[in-house]
Specification:
Elements lengths: L13 H13 L3 H22 L8
Length: 59
Amino acid sequence: MSRRVEWNPDHKNADDQQNAFIDKYLSWPPTKKWAYLMELSKQGLKQINAKGPRRIEWK
């Protein structure tokens, strides 16, 4: 699930982009949310073995 994220010119900063993603995420069906979270988990587990735990900081 590694893909390049294109910057939307409507977003003035990263917070705008994050809020747009959250709104989009909340509209997903539960199965898609679960698949997305499992993919993030898989990516994090690979990094734990190589570089240590993955750290996500929320404001």
